[in-house]
Amino acid sequence: MLKNLPKTAHHQVICEANFLRLKKLMGSYAEKEYCFEVLDAENIPQKISFLVLDRTMHTIVLEAKQNHKNKNKYNNFSLRILVSLDAKLAETISYQGEKAIPSFLKQTNIQSKDEKYQQNRFLTEWLESIFSLGILPKKNIKNILDKNA
User: Fold this and answer.
1) Domain that holds residue 15
2) What is the pLDDT of residues 119-145, one digit of tens each?
3) In a domain, 51, yes or no
4) What residues contact residue 97 under an 8 Å CB cut-off, 6+ apart?
5) Which of 134, 126, 125, 115 is nearest to 50 (CA)?
6) What's the number of domains the chain is made of?
7) What are the C-alpha distances in Å from 138 to residues 33, 38, 47, 144?
8) pLDDT score, position 1
9) Does residue 1 lie within any of the structural domains?
10) Can you give the pTM of this predicted structure?
11) Spatial CA neighbour of 78 closest among 98, 59, 61, 52
């Protein structure tokens, strides 16, 4: 029995979990764009959007963005995600608009050894935070804020 899981198995588990989280948010990916808002700890809305960039029979490429209303640049980001429908995996292919580096290249000067792992782990934690903060369609959260004002 292996004491440690190989990196590939661990990466696959993360991608499977990300697929399930995205499925909860977007169902069958029937729409072209999905927009949500969550409230941060200071009750400031954060816009979260998922745009379907490309769709084939077996894959979907999404662009996921978060924009914070107070223009805090550290809370604003974008990810490109490849969703494999048959394999039931969702993997980050780009962060902040950087071009994906082909897997056949060895480590480059512009990429750390575990960059792919870090990006997929970030996606996992971001999706978890969306669910923990509570998510509503954009129109509903505006009604809540108007009632509390």
Assistant:
1) 7-102+110-148
2) 889 899 989 888 877 665 555 545 555
3) yes
4) 78
5) 126
6) 1
7) 12, 9, 8, 11
8) 47
9) no
10) 0.75
11) 98
